[in-house]
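Field reference: "sequence" (input) and "structure" (output). Example, DUF2802 domain-containing protein:
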Amino acid sequence: MGVKDADTSADAGADVEAKAEALEDLAATRADIAADTAEDEVADDAVVALSRAAPDNAAADSFSLALEVRQLRRDAAQLRGEIDQLRAEQLVFRQSINEQAAQLDAARAAQRVSPLYGEALALVRRGMTAEDIAERCSISVAEAELVKSLGQDPAEGSEDAR
């Protein structure tokens, strides 16, 4: 049991570290977007200045280049936003995977139940109530409920809670 608790706390610590790292990445990306927005405003001012100051051909070339730079910066900002969304989705997927791993660990733990409770576990799988299991196996109702909670699928347990 002690080893299992250490593994669970290590997994929880790793999960917290992963979430903190993801949040730091999001904050850094948002700072980059803010900086790019400020640069876009400067680029807009440069476009206006270039269009007034340069001769016609040179001004047209400079103007088109400035427009292209401006569009590329907008595209980069949009891509950064999409990356933020993907990172958020990835975080949700990681959390889901961690929850499913915990459920799998619980199911494996239920399979390693003491032989003393083997019959009770078999009765749980047949769908018997905790009271019936306790009576049939000569164990307390609390023990029967514990065996039942360990032996049920997580989806079945949530249906019983309703």
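The CA atoms of residues 27 and 84 lie 10 Å apart.
The chain has two domains: 1-112, 114-154.
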